[in-house]
Amino acid sequence: MAVYTDVPDDQLADFIADYGIGDIVSFKGIAEGVENSNFLLKTTVGTYILTLYEKRVDANDLPFFLGLMEHLAAKGISCPLPLKTTSGQMIGTLAGRPAAVITFLEGIWHRHPTEIHAGAVGDALARFHLAGQGFQLTRRNALDRSAWRPLFDRCNGRADEVATGLEAEIARELGTFEADWPADLPSGVIHADLFPDNVFFLGDTLSGLIDFYFACNDAFAYDLGICLNSWCFNENGSYNLDKGRAMLMAYDAVRPLSPAEWAALPLLCRGSSMRFLLTRLYDWLNVPKGALVRPKDPLEYRHKLQFHRMIRDVTDYGVSSDMVKRA
User: Fold this and answer.
1) Would you say residue 1 lies in a domain?
2) Structural domain count, the chain
3) What are the phi and psi torsion angles at 274 (to 5°)?
4) In this model, does residue 3 exceed pLDDT 60?
């Protein structure tokens, strides 16, 4: 269960009283998520999510994360809305941790997303990128290309403990990214972690986006590459052309990709693969003894990186050459 901090009953009651959302009916931990302690809170007024921000989240970033949710909701994006206390504050302290209460979003996430879901995500991601324009706060991507080599160095030359040849392969790829990473692409606020468990559906209708705690400023097309990797591969590791086509066409229909973005997409997808390969590799090599949470397999993203390395041009992702030429 992703609950790292226990909340005493008396402290919880005092904390919630300041929000004017009624009396507590029930309160239980939520197993989803790995960064923070999350609780489902039901009161006599409604249902909410209470989040305690753990040490991996910089408290200085919370105004960006929560302010972004407020901004997006005002722009018509379906996402949780942070509540404010009677004194107008979105961030408080509970059990020694920064804490916030946000509205509850109805829906479920799909463990086996279809082409329909991939298309809906492409549409929602483009609308998210457009809605983020005008948000006044900024946040550097702490896991951008400049962070990958230091993270690799922190793995202490142990990558081959996971798979033979992985150490040399990562080193070669990092050299490519450092030499060829595209600059000056259209940029703004990106989600940076829009995996299936961060998108809710009611049936096949997308009901909202959650978990903005990796959001930052970076290239829009890089965010699209993250989504292609997380939504458009089959369980056997193969790329699904139908899902990829649906996502790219839906995104482009809302925010048309520029020629430079289309051209850069294969490298951006490789970079997205490297980002998650490295964070998973580090966690895999440094999981504490006796930990109850099993780290995610880094080799999933090695396979994705290898696929993108073979891409000749973006038509290999399922889109037509005519669509790219119209950019």
Assistant:
1) no
2) 2
3) -65, -40
4) no
Residue 110 lies in a domain: no
Q: Are residues 226 and 150 in the same domain?
A: yes
The 3-class SS string of the chain reads CCCCCCCCHHHHHHHHHCCCCCCEEEEEECCCCCCCEEEEEEECCCEEEEEECCCCCCHHHHHHHHHHHHHHHHCCCCCCCECCCCCCCCCEEECCEEEEEEECCCCECCCCCCHHHHHHHHHHHHHHHHHCCCCCCCCECCCCHHHHHHHHHCCCCCHHHCCCCHHHHHHHHHHHHHHHCCCCCCEEEECCCCCHHHEEEECCEEEEECCCCCCEEEEHHHHHHHHHHHHCECCCCCECHHHHHHHHHHHHHHCCCCHHHHHHHHHHHHHHHHHHHHHHHHHHHCCCCCCCCCCCCCHHHHHHHHHHHCCCCHHHHCCCHHHHHCC
Q: How far apart are CA 158 and CA 169, in angstroms?
A: 13
89-141 per-position pLDDT tens digit: 999 999 999 999 999 999 999 999 999 999 999 999 999 999 999 999 999 99
* Top-confidence residue, 43 or 290: 43
Same domain, 254 and 304: yes
Which residue range forms the structural domain that includes residue 139?
A: 115-325
Please indicate, yes or no, whether residues 31 and 138 belong to a single structural domain of this protein. Answer: no
Residue 158 and residue 188 in contact, taking contact as beta carbons nearer than 8 Å: no
pLDDT, tens digit, 9 for 90 and up, residues 313-322? 899 999 998 8
Residue 254 and residue 130 in contact, taking contact as beta carbons nearer than 8 Å: yes
Question: Based on the domain organization, do 99 and 152 belong to the same domain?
Answer: no
